[in-house]
Amino acid sequence: MELLLDYNCIYFVQVFLIALFFCLYLLVIIQKNTIEIYYIIGYWFFVLLCSLGNVLLYSLSLKLLHIQLYATLIIVGIFPLFFYKIIIKPLNILLYAMKEVSKGNSKVTIPATTDEISLATQTLNQVKNDLENYISEKSKTETIMEIAKNIQTSLLPSDLDVFGYEIVAYSKPADDVGGDYYDIIDEKGKKYAVIGDVCGHGLAAGLIMIMAQTLIHSCLQSGITDLTEILIRVNQTLLSNIERLQEDKYMTLTLFRFEENGKIIHSGAHQDILVYRNRTKKVEAIKTYGCWLGILDDISDLVRNNELLLEGDDMMLLFTDGIIEAIDENQNRYEKNRLIKLLEENGEFQPEFVKQKIIESLNDYTIEDDITLMVFKKMSILKETRSM
Predict the structure, then answer these.
(1) pLDDT by residue (tens digit) across 146-180?
(2) 235, containing H or E segment
(3) What's the topology of domain 157-387?
(4) SS3 string of 253-311?
(5) Beta-strand (E) ranges in the chain?
(6) What is the residue extent of each domain of the chain?
(7) Which of 12, 169, 281, 333 sits most deeply, having the most CB atoms within 10 A of its CB?
(8) Whole-structure pTM value
């Protein structure tokens, strides 16, 4: 009876120590994650088994107890190493790899493993490979976008010079590459202006914008001066190319040809032409007629030449819909009427001043599309004479 009591006391003391070292194990494993702690836990775990054996076998011979103790010590030496090599170490490697991949490091090495951990390892390897492919494709896309951006920027007019006019322009794409197009062209002694907008923005819109620019220049260089004829030819080729690109795109575009004494011929459908009349201090919104390019095979019956006249100190504003479709914090659009009001308030000033006023007025708006504007001010006769 006393022997049983002694064994029970030893058992409960050992259980208490096991619980104490188990708490220590949890604390250390979280903070340090070292192999030594597993030996400690393995040792005390099997001490518990030894204690249970002592209770169950207290009536047997001392030799049997010694055999049990030696077997326990051998297992204690093997179990932690097995546990660490098979489970803990692969998990540590996997957790490290997951942390590196989450940082965007696709070069981290993830060694192959077996058993249940292998599935997680395979999944992480797939994620790593997908990340590498994504980075590679992203790099290629960024390179293409950079090339397209440089090409598009190089095609913008460097000389905004039309005799008898002061001209400024501003364009800002929503992406690296935009679908807005503006131009001043000098061909065979004639001056032309262009403003256009490919629906949407991005690389596809930018490519279509470059096509339109190239086609217009090609027509003018070949001697075609009639604006409607240029639009018809541009539309035919543009439609064919858009279909090849398999893009659902179209383009609004208005062409202008400057004549003498403030006369301007224009053709093609785009936004209204806003003209500030210096005599009345009011803005006239002139409709543009025609058809969107890239929609129909033949637009010959839909386009026509129109003309407007600018007098001294009159101002003409051309713009794309990215401006009037900008949205404020209350989800209200900028709208054309605000642009008209701003032009009426500032039309007597220089084009650069008006341009800056328009840009500043957009500061409180969210712009989700490309924006472009061109401001033309007809010089008075006195200013024209001085500029000659």
Answers:
(1) 666 666 676 778 889 999 999 999 999 887 778 89
(2) helix 227-245
(3) Phosphatase 2c; domain 1 (3.60.40)
(4) EEEEEECHHHEEEEECCCCCEEEEECCCCEEEEECCCCCCECCCCCCCCCCCCEEEECC
(5) 165-172, 180-187, 190-198, 251-258, 263-267, 273-277, 282-286, 306-309, 315-319, 371-378
(6) 2-133, 157-387
(7) 169
(8) 0.66
